[in-house]
Amino acid sequence: MTTEPAPKQIIPFDPSLLKLGEEDAKFFKTCTRIEDGEELAKHITDVAAKAYEVFSWPCIALFEFTKFKVSRLPAYQSVIKLGQERPGAILLDTACCFGNDLRKVISDGWPMENTIAIDVEPAFWGYGHELFKSTPETFPAGFIGGDIFDPSILRPRQPFYQPPATPRPQNLRTLESLTPLQGHISAICVLWFFHLYGEEKQIELAKQLASLLSPEPGSVIFGSQRGEPIKKTGDSLWGYSPMCHSPESWKELWDRVFKKGTVRVETELEEGACTV
């Protein structure tokens, strides 16, 4: 999400690291229409290898993008219900990489015309089309290539507590920045990138996201990040020293962003692997 260069290839690219789960393989087969398992694996690793040569994020080398983690989040089913029941509800996928999680959300029922994604590297979106064998015409979700900290992409402002005076943009594909969407987004997906920043930058990021959230009850920012039982800077991970919140400090962060008592923060700490 920043304009900083991607990390050097700390992890050698190894196609054998691809381990598709049954449900994830089924989703890829449906999207790509490649039924043969070996052919599908080669297709995925070929696209990932090209992307990794240019943008060497460990999550690409470890094939984390094949796991569709969004559907495993506790809030996921309520998010899908929101998209189906609230007229015109918009979903934003942040740091979207290949758009893999957004595609899962759409396949599970969120109207595609009401979705938009952002990533600092526009080429990722193109690799996503190659990976899932789609085109801008067959997969016309909105996309913005840019840095969410850049005021030309998203102008800083306070969260909305009343409906915005500006109208909801009707065609998300024509947008060149997120600013017209401030106060209009019903669901914001935030997966695995808060911890890449120090505490002050995390607060800035939270404020940027908060400015986009609709004040309508039920609107939600959801996702997962690396955490710790006690707030601290985590052990170095592939060249990063992630800033990790505890459940308590995570709640405190959002209380600094929104007026206290205006949002409910639900969080839980789970043991598991971390990728960046």
Summarize the entry for a quick read.
The chain is of the alpha/beta class and 276 residues long. It contains eight helices and seven strands; from the N terminus they run ααααβαβαββαβββα. The longest helix has 18 residues, at 37-54.
Report on the structure:
Helices cover 32% and strands 11% of the residues. The model is unreliable at 1-6 (pLDDT under 50). It is built from eight helices and seven strands. The chain has 276 residues and is α/β, with parallel strands linked by helices. The strands form two sheets. Strands 3-2-1-4-5 form a five-stranded parallel β-sheet, with helices on both faces. The protein has helices spanning 22-32, 37-54, 58-61, 76-85, 100-107, 122-132, 199-212, 247-257; strands at 90-94, 115-119, 142-145, 185-191, 220-224, 232-233, 243-244. The radius of gyration is 18 Å and the shape is globular. Helix 2 (37-54) packs antiparallel against helix 6 and helix 7 (199-212) crosses helix 8 (247-257).
Structural class: alpha/beta
Residue-averaged pLDDT, rounded?
A: 91
Series of H and E elements? HHHHEHEHEEHEEEH
Beta percentage is: 5-15%
List unreliable stretches of 5+ residues: 1-6
